[in-house]
Structure prediction request, 357 residues.
Amino acid sequence: MFDTLPTEIITHIYLSLPSISATLALASTCHRFHNVFHTSKRLLILSEAAESEFGPVDDIIQLLTHNYSQAAHVHRTAPMSDALIQQVVRVGRVARAFETIYPFKKWKTDFANRRLLKPNECYVFRRALYRRWLFDEAFHARFYDRTCRSVPRYVHDRAALLHNYSTVELAELLDVHRMLRDVVANNICPSNGKIRQKFHKRHPESNHQLLLNVHLDCAPPAASSFARDGWFDESLIASANYHARLQPSRWHEPGAEGWGDDISHYYVVEDMMKLNPEQILFLRDRCLVKSEVEAYLREHCGDWFVNNGETLSETVGFVVKQRGGEMEAMKLAIEGGEMGVAVIGGHDWSGISCSTH
Prediction:
């Protein structure tokens, strides 16, 4: 039956598919679909599938085509190609991964209302994440150290990018930014208090006294040489398990996994928020102990990174104030579900000033 379908009908089927994986799967079903796919319409089919799965692709293109030869706020276009499609997929997969994390952070204590994002909310979430990522690439770089944070020219450059977005879109951007901050503050760089809380929750029967802010110089040996000692299993230290940081042993002190008390931890998080979403996701999933995070920072970040906090939050506040709104009112609206990615009741606050909501 498929052999008798016109090419236009098959092409329309391809353009209606929800993902790139579905497109490739359909192209592998028979020679007819394979031949139709490998025509001049192939890039169009893949770009439409990418839009459905990872869209908005235009915001991804703004991120991928950014360079320092052109201002970040200038809109850019690029012809679709195989190489660009591959980069779109790489960026989009990061956004899709954070889609599953967002509900746990958004409704962290409000368990009764926790839910998956709706399709339109997923689109809004990805758009905000791509825009936050663009800001990272443009202004969280070695060219911008702490001495230029308040220089009017640099403040204007940062604000010019955010002026491309409406106030409602800025609230969505700030909502995603707050979610990433929660991941950094609690999963990647937990404070001393958070480590203490997690340790006692995981090992309520333990009498182990945490030695906070103590850094052990000796590296743990291979997992095969670990000896079993007492109530804990030291072999878990080398396993790919998030809770490895909470396992005490003669080679590992869980208290050393803390990144300081409340004040010092705040400044650590401010620095870490300059990392882009892909880096944050990598550290969350791959760097299970503090030493691995520190090694990553030494390898991928320079001296400009330390004691030089992120500038997105203050730039959003600057733009909101220019528009006659209030930053604190926006934060309260996001916390209350009136603004942001997941809006209670599906209300649309577009066009309403921040001073009101």
Summary: The first helix runs from residue 7 to 15. The mean pLDDT is 86. DSSP finds 15 helices and no strands in the chain. The CA atoms of residues 94 and 281 lie 7 Å apart.
